[in-house]
Write a structure and sequence with these properties.
The protein is mainly α. It folds into two domains: 49 residues, no CATH class; 30 residues. Helix 4 packs across helix 5. It is built from five helices and no strands.
């Protein structure tokens, strides 16, 4: 699943889209009115949330390194090991 999808599907007013997710602000702005009922988030908001998503393999590697070093895990790191 694309990071864009993860971010926008959390929004109550998200209706969906067809094709590929937008890759930049211009493409997003040209399609956002079709994707949302009412007020759509700005590209800056969406991009910021996408940038904060860490892929599962990175989380798993971080968790393993912390376990070996005896450091506490974040909830997200623990979830990658238990789920």
């Amino acid at each position: 699943m694309a990071k864009f999808d993860i971010v926008v599907q959390k929004r109550n007013n998200f209706k969906g889209y067809t094709g590929e997710p937008p890759i930049d602000e211009a493409e997003y702005n040209s399609r956002k009115d079709e994707m949302f009922d009412g007020e759509a988030p700005t590209w800056t908001e969406v991009k910021s949330e996408m940038d904060n998503i860490i892929d599962p393999e990175t989380l798993k590697a971080n968790a393993k390194a912390k376990l070996i070093a005896g450091e506490p895990l974040t909830e997200a790191e623990a979830d990658t090991l238990v789920i």
